[in-house]
Design goal:
The complex is a heterodimer of chains A (377) and B (273). Chain A folds into 3 domains: 5-182, Rossmann fold; 201-262, no CATH class; 266-376, Rossmann fold (3-Layer(aba) Sandwich). Chain A contains 13 helices and 17 strands. Chain A has helices at residues 10-20, 35-47, 58-70, 81-97, 124-129, 145-162, 172-176, 243-258, 261-264, 284-298, 316-323, 339-347, 366-376, and strands spanning 5-9, 25-28, 51-54, 75-80, 101-106, 108-109, 115-119, 139-140, 165-168, 178-182, 227-229, 267-270, 277-281, 303-308, 310-312, 328-333, 353-357. In chain A, β6 (108-109) and β7 form a beta hairpin. In chain B, the strands form 2 sheets. Chain B has an 8-stranded mixed sheet with strand order 2-1-3-4-8-7-10-9, sandwiched between helices. In chain B, α1 (24-38) packs across α6, α3 (95-101) packs across α4 and α4 (103-112) packs across α5 (157-164). The chains are: A alpha/beta (377), B alpha/beta (273). The complex binds thiamine diphosphate, iron/sulfur cluster and magnesium ion (MG).
Chain lengths: 377, 273
């Protein structure tokens, strides 16, 4: 049987990815350039008995999705820059209260209203540092429409596996570009179910670490009575200021992601074996990066690309290993140097890091990258 | 036989954080009696709050409880209710939480007429943060941030709810404790968004700044200003000066309820499939 194939926009693919992953609740607030996600979800969810709601703002959308997530639903939400700023308050709560949910943020020009229809990659730091306090962060950065579908599925799986919010952040180019998408068959990509309690209700504690760093989560209305708070909490879910509990809980919340970085981090190594100059790129920029590498190879330059699929946790180990082998890194990105900071941190002075930075709403083209490679060689 | 509150309270969670004389506890007892009178299944009941002294209430209640971020209770509750319409969903919280930072969520929940009961514990002040003025602090009164008297006009919470589209709106007071459970029970039974405003006291941060010498004096004021709607019908405008109406102020059983309307959306979508 041949697979279903469609010609889709990144945003549409994201919606179908969410549905494939078992999403049955969407709450959102319209914003360019992500609105198509909400539109597709409003059509598709009721068909399968799922729920779609347009809330009064992005904070409310996050709140509604988190409420539904606690009622046992797999929840999704889409937004862009200004909306992501508003969501920071409740992304923090999803981290501390450990509520699985997936947020799709299409990167447009910023700060503030910025350039609503122009592409950008300037939200990547916000994905990690946007909400206050120490917290884990998982952020995926697809570069094709097919990958947008697949990364949304992976985001749902990671959010369930680690009981934490996950961000999927294509730039506007990937979100609005149309490409061929081959739909995986049902079951072809395994779907991570929510880990629900195995103990009877009287024994259930929502943050019981005897089940490991990711405690099972019951659903409201399933017979379990439990408390969820945005305050620092103990294993029983109730507020606490007890120093050792707070310390232990905060460390665990970060550790459950950081210690599993190898499971979460995905990347593509392109022509890296003998590469002397390495492009570190993500999203649409990596498409120019690939073209530039091919051109460079034709000209005898040993170029390669390390393409991030997971931005957070950052692939520290991989970049550190490359730093000892290469003559230089080139980091093209549609911001004034965000990924560069992470690459520099890992290069530890062993290799120069040259940024190519555009915030004018125009994509970075292969020629710019090729020219920069020649500066390194 | 004395009423057994304990079966609704989480074991080991008392004493509560509220100050002596705070009205929040009286309201919690009223809520418990309401739940008991309706024989609601606590595994199917969710109590959701924001942040504030009032918003600490869910932590004491033995059901599906959620203590969210400041002002966001109605939006979280909307998610729970839309996801599981069969659950009983109740919001509780303060005047600041519900009508300042959460004002937008509050009016939109009213507008949707989603079947949630919102109990707003109006003590006219931001209690938890030490007594700054709230949208319900009477003009001219003192708060820690209105040392020269409050220049802001205030909200009438019940009118706000009615104007925004809530279909059941009632008001009681912490003094009239025996009425609280009845108002809340009727609100829960109402199909649609119901608001129960309970006029409350905060002796610690509001009373002492506004010349109330004691909790008793604050309670007496609630007793004096409250006029049941029925009684008010027979009173003149002059007699009603400075009075506040209590009881069921508004009820509309014709407006469609949100989750029922969403079920129709599902039906239409599936018919088209
Ligand atoms: C985003 C945010 N802003 C401000 C605060 C600080 N804060 C906590 S409670 C509160 C006011 C609570 O007043 P109210 O809702 O009337 O409840 P009360 O304490 O009077 O019962 C404020 C301003 C906060 N927790 N979060
Ligand atoms: S500060 Fe006021 S509102 Fe808070 S517990 Fe004390 S009396 Fe009640
Ligand atoms: Mg108050």
């Amino acid at each position: 049987m041949s697979k279903k194939v469609a010609f889709l926009q990144g945003n549409e693919a994201a919606s179908y990815g969410a549905l494939y992953a078992g999403c049955n609740f969407f709450a959102g607030y319209p914003i360019t350039p992500s609105t198509e996600v909400a539109e597709v979800m409003s059509v598709e969810l009721p068909k399968i008995g799922g729920k779609f709601i347009q809330m009064e703002d992005e904070i409310a959308a996050s709140a509604a999705m988190m409420g539904a997530a606690l009622a046992g639903f797999k929840t999704f939400d889409s937004t862009s820059g200004p909306g992501l700023s508003l969501k920071q308050e409740l992304i923090g709560m999803a981290c501390i209260s450990e509520i699985p949910c997936v947020i799709f943020n299409v990167m447009r020009g910023g700060p503030s209203t910025g350039m609503p229809t122009g592409p950008s990659q300037s939200d990547v730091m916000c994905a990690k540092w946007g909400t206050h306090g120490d917290h884990p962060a998982i952020c995926l950065v697809p570069s094709t429409v097919q990958e947008t579908f697949e990364e949304v599925v992976r985001a749902f799986n990671l959010s369930e596996k680690y009981r934490t919010p996950v961000l999927v952040m294509p730039d506007e180019i990937v979100a609005h570009m149309r490409e061929r998408v081959v739909f995986p068959e049902p079951g072809e990509i395994p779907i991570e179910p929510r880990r629900t309690p195995t103990v009877p209700p009287e024994q259930y504690k929502p943050y019981d670490t005897s089940f490991g760093d990711v405690p099972p989560l019951a659903a409201y209305g399933s017979g379990y009575k439990f408390h969820v708070t945005s305050l620092n909490k103990g294993q029983d879910g109730f507020p606490t200021t007890k120093a050792e509990w707070v310390q232990a809980e905060e460390e665990r919340q970060v550790r459950k992601v950081e210690a599993n970085a190898d499971d979460i981090i995905e990347f593509e190594e392109y022509q890296l074996d003998d590469a002397e100059v390495v492009v570190v790129a993500y999203g649409s920029t990596s498409r120019s990066g690939r073209y530039a590498v091919n051109e460079a190879r034709k000209q005898g330059i040993k170029a390669g690309m390390f393409r991030l699929k997971t931005f957070w946790p950052f692939p520290d180990k991989q970049i550190k290993a490359l730093a000892g082998k290469v003559k230089g890194f080139i980091v093209p990105e549609m911001n004034l140097g965000m990924c560069s900071i992470e690459v520099e941190r890992n290069a530890q002075g062993k290799a120069p890091v040259l940024g190519i930075n555009r915030v004018d709403g125009e994509p970075i083209n292969p020629d710019q990258i090729l020219a920069k490679m020649k500066e390194v060689i | 036989m004395a009423f057994d509150y304990e079966k609704y309270i989480r074991p080991g969670k008392l004493p509560h954080i509220w100050c002596p004389g705070c009205g929040h506890g009286i309201i919690m007892k009223g809520l418990i009696r309401a739940l008991d009178s309706l024989k609601l299944d606590m595994t199917q009941t969710s109590i959701v709050s924001g942040i504030g002294c009032a918003s600490r209430l869910p932590g004491y209640m033995d059901c599906c409880t959620l203590h969210t971020a400041h002002g966001r209770a109605a939006a979280f509750a909307t998610g729970i209710k839309l996801a599981k319409p069969e659950m009983n969903v109740i919001c509780v919280g303060g005047d600041g939480d519900g009508t300042a930072i959460g004002g937008n969520h509050f009016i939109h929940a009213c507008r949707r007429n989603i079947d949630i009961t919102y109990v707003i514990m109006n003590n006219y002040i931001y209690g938890m943060t030490g007594g700054q003025f709230s949208p319900t602090t009477p003009t001219g009164n003192k708060a820690s941030t209105t040392p020269y008297g409050n220049p802001d006009p205030c909200f009438d919470v019940a009118k706000l709810a009615i104007g925004a589209g809530a279909t059941f709106v009632a008001r009681g007071t912490a003094f009239h404790a025996n009425q609280i459970d009845k108002l809340i029970a009727e609100a829960i039974q109402h199909k649609g968004f119901s608001v129960v405003e309970i006029l409350d006291d905060c002796p610690t941060t509001y009373g002492r700044r506004n010349k109330f010498k004691s909790v008793v004096e604050m309670m007496n004021r609630l007793k004096e200003v409250a006029v049941p709607v029925k009684a008010a019908e027979k009173m003149t405008a002059e007699q009603l000066q400075g009075k506040i109406l209590t009881g069921v102020l508004y009820k509309d059983e014709t407006k469609p309820e949100y989750t029922a309307e969403y079920d129709k959306v599902i039906e239409r979508a599936q018919a088209k499939k």
